[in-house]
């Protein structure tokens, strides 16, 4: 019997790029698809960091509130409102302009 040869990480990557070429290069034909998924990674990084530091969230409510705050700040930054400005508005009982606009 022949033993199956193990593939290297580089070979596995090459095969995935070949097999999913349309998905990998979609950003070139669809302007709504970003070049990287770094924004998605940045959005979850703080939650993962919190888990790493504390080991976990103490309650579901704490995790929920953390997610709401991070979501608010992330959305604000996507609309060119700094985190400091977004928090300042919030603590003064106001909302950033993008939240009050009607469609």
What does this structure look like?
By secondary structure, this protein is mostly helical. The chain folds into two domains: 8-56, no CATH class; 58-103, no CATH class. Helix content is 62%, strand content 0%. It is built from six helices and no strands. The chain has helices at residues 9-19, 21-24, 38-54, 60-78, 83-91, 97-100. The relative contact order is 0.06. The mean pLDDT is 84.
Salient structural properties:
single chain; mainly alpha; 103 residues; flat; 2 domains
Quick rundown:
The protein is an all-alpha fold. It has helices at residues 9-19, 21-24, 38-54, 60-78, 83-91, 97-100.
Spans of at least 5 consecutive residues whose pLDDT stays below 50 are: none
Q: What's the helix-strand series?
A: HHHHHH
Helical/strand content category: mainly alpha
Helix content: 55-70%
The gross shape turns out to be flat
Global Rg: 21 Å
Major pleated sheet: none
E-strand count: 0
Terminal residue distance: 67 Å
Rounded average pLDDT: 84
Strand-helix topology:
Layout: H1 9-19, H2 21-24, H3 38-54, H4 60-78, H5 83-91, H6 97-100
